[in-house]
Amino acid sequence: MSIVDAVAWRNPVLHRELKQRASTPRMMLVITLYLVVLTAVVFALYQARTGDRTGSFGQPGVTEIASIGQSLFEYVLFFMVILVLFIVPGFTASSIAGERERQTLRALQVSLLSPRSIVFGKVGASVAATVLLLVASLPLLAVAYLIGGITFGEIFISLGVVLFAAFGLACITVACSAIVKRVSGAILLAYGIVLLLVGGTFVGYAVLQEVDASRGSDLAQPPSWVMAANPLAAVADVSQRSVSDQTDDDQFGEFGPFGPSFGNSQVESPLSAVRDLMQPKFPQNGFGFNDGPFPVPIPVGIDEFGNVIQDNRGGNDQGASDDGDRVPFIAEFFILFTALSVTGLAIAIWRVRTPARTER
Amino acid sequence: MSTLGTSVMPVVPISSPEPPSRPALVRARSLTKNYGSLAAVDNIDFDIPRGSIFGLIGPNGAGKSTTFAMVASLLIPTSGTVTIADFNPMTDRMQVRRRVGYMPDNIGVYGDLTAVDYLRFFAASYRIKPKAWDPLVDGLLELVDLADKRDAQVDSLSRGMKQRLSLARALVHDPELLILDEPASGLDPRARVELRELLLQLARMGKTILISSHILAELEAVCSDIAIMEGGRIHAIGAPADIRAATNTGSRIAVAFTDGSTEEYPVSDALTQAALLRRLVIEDPRDVLSFAPVDADLEGLYMQITDTVRAGEVETAAVASVDPLLDPMAGT
Ligand SMILES: Nc1ncnc2c1ncn2[C@@H]1O[C@H](COP(=O)(O)OP(=O)(O)O)[C@@H](O)[C@H]1O
Ligand SMILES: [Mg+2]
């Protein structure tokens, strides 16, 4: 039995979906377009950073080069997350609803396939297609790695989080596809949920921060679980670990999320902007000024040499050191997203299962 | 008016003991499916003998597809039961699915696959080992006369060919029972003849076939048993000849009442028809469920009835559906 036959026999739905995706030119087009855009961004960024550096200060120093590598790394990561946010719902929304629309679902339901195999096949196929896109962008991460400032471990962990987010979104979207009867409706619902998970949590967090700031005299920092369903925040959080370790020599370089200042030996990326957003804010009344973000060095850990690592950015990890018994933000993300994934799968399976009360 | 109280059609009581030579493969007992207040299938009983071609005839909305979906383990009955080889789809759905090949009314196919890949896909879905796929698929394509379309894209096939491919799909696991929901609809006369031939061939192979149509004449020639269904109820059940004999009685109208009884009235002209309708509604305490023209000038009769109802001359009548149930011209 060939491997292809083995897949076809173990999960025919997965096999058919993969085959169909592989045979449509659309997939190649998406990959090519994505890589072109990503490469252009990375190249432009590299030019800007190195050009700026050599122009004003001569040859960049080691930490500066490291920060360039880190910036590139974060840019590529950011684009991966954005890609996942856009493409996974697109890949998955038609999975069940499309079969319903084409009147092909009933033939599957009366077969000996379990509803679980049907749903897993659909989710597996869109995750596999997403993995292909992520793998295609690995060379760009390799460029960042070669420039320096990041380790394999960091790349590995960050990719893991991106992949986990892709899987979670696929599970959420397959539920949408099983609930809503029409593909168009399923797509709308899925992107609506993505908007809620990303945009909604940002807005919610910002609002809570304002409320918090207007109330007390301590730092305004809403509970981190508000952001725990936000894949962008999760990736920003894990990539921050490496970044904070290696750039704590420049604590005063942050000038806000929207004004990247390349003159500083400072990691600037959309992900750092996300971290800024989650940074504790000074209260509006406590000190009489609120023009933050002033750098607030906060110990976040001890490095391998026994020095106290300080971080100037705030962010949710400090929640852990603020009140010791809190779980780290990334763990909150994993717990919440696992719960969402399992719920999504369960809903989808329940909606596909027959006999049912109404024809589904 | 002299025939008031006469039953429309001979009803073979299903509770009568079956002849031992025709054991039932499918048994429905008080099978009911409600959608809100609508009884899509209303307390029906039937037995489908092994090896028979059982035709369920009724107009659109009669409840045929709903009945089939319950037999095929897709729908949960509101009450009552159906069993296939003594297996209940509610508790033994895998046993039922192994024995049932189901072709829904709207056949959807994967247009992007080739005919052979389409059937391989379903062979895998029925847990058949890859080694057995090729001989199985080739045999099926041969059976439905699509061997020369083996590697053609499903999208490129004609409607009749897609229908036959769908039928091959339903046969992939060699089921005892084939459920075909209006397989002839949308086919040209030639394709219908081919389909009929295929059905007879499958019956010779020992399959039991449950098939539906809204045209009696379409299935008369191939069915060994026929049930007439309307408004969720089975009004008559028997051999095709008996059913036909009962319906060839002149210009008549069948009236179904909500209490389950059905009565037939002779109709001479539209005026007496209208008068009859008013009389029925006013004098008969039972609610009228539906009218079914039994013969001749069906459309005209239908218009008369619905116009009378719409004009407000009748207050409580509910014209559920009056389709050309028994269309003598169809299929010839
Ligand atoms: N999912 C559903 N929800 C509500 N009503 C339904 C549903 N499916 C079928 N019906 C109604 O049940 C009745 C029987 O439908 P159906 O079994 O499709 O009839 P047939 O196949 O004989 O044309 C119709 O009145 C139809 O409108
Ligand atoms: Mg139907």
Key structural traits:
heterodimer, A: 360 residues, mainly alpha, two-stranded antiparallel sheet, 14 helices, B: 332 residues, alpha/beta, Rossmann fold, 2 domains, six-stranded mixed beta sheet, three-stranded antiparallel beta sheet, 10 helices, globular, disordered N terminus, binds adenosine-5'-diphosphate, binds magnesium ion
What does this structure look like?
- The complex is a heterodimer of chains A (360) and B (332).
- Chain A starts with a helix and ends in an 8-residue tail after the last helix.
- Helix content of chain A is 67%, strand content 2%.
- In chain A, strands 1-2 form a two-stranded antiparallel ribbon.
- Chain A has one domain.
- By secondary structure, chain A is mostly helical.
- Chain A has 14 helices and 2 strands.
- Chain B folds into 2 domains: 24-112 and 156-247 and 297-310, Rossmann fold (3-Layer(aba) Sandwich), CATH 3.40.50.300; 252-294.
- Helix content of chain B is 33%, strand content 23%.
- Chain B has helices at residues 64-71, 93-99, 115-125, 130-143, 159-170, 189-204, 216-220, 240-247, 270-283, 298-310; strands at 24-35, 38-49, 53-57, 79-84, 100-103, 177-180, 208-213, 225-230, 233-238, 252-257, 262-266, 288-293.
- The model of chain B is unreliable at 1-18, 268-275 and 313-332 (pLDDT under 50).
- Adenosine-5'-diphosphate is lined by residues 35, 38, 40, 58, 60-66 of chain B.
- Adenosine-5'-diphosphate binds at residues 35, 38, 40, 58, 60-66 of chain B.
The percent range for strand residues of chain A is: under 5%
Note the gap between the termini of chain A.
35 Å
Structural class call of chain B reads: alpha/beta
Q: What fold name goes in the CATH topology slot of the largest domain in chain B?
A: Rossmann fold
User: Which ions and ligands are bound to the chains?
Assistant: adenosine-5'-diphosphate, magnesium ion
- Overall, the morphology of chain B is globular
Q: Name the average pLDDT of chain B.
A: 79
Order of helices and strands of chain A: HHHHHHHHHHHHEEHH
Q: Which consecutive residue ranges of chain A, at least 5 long each, have pLDDT under 50? A: 242-265, 285-299, 311-325
Count every beta strand of chain B, where a strand is a DSSP E run of 2 or more residues. 12
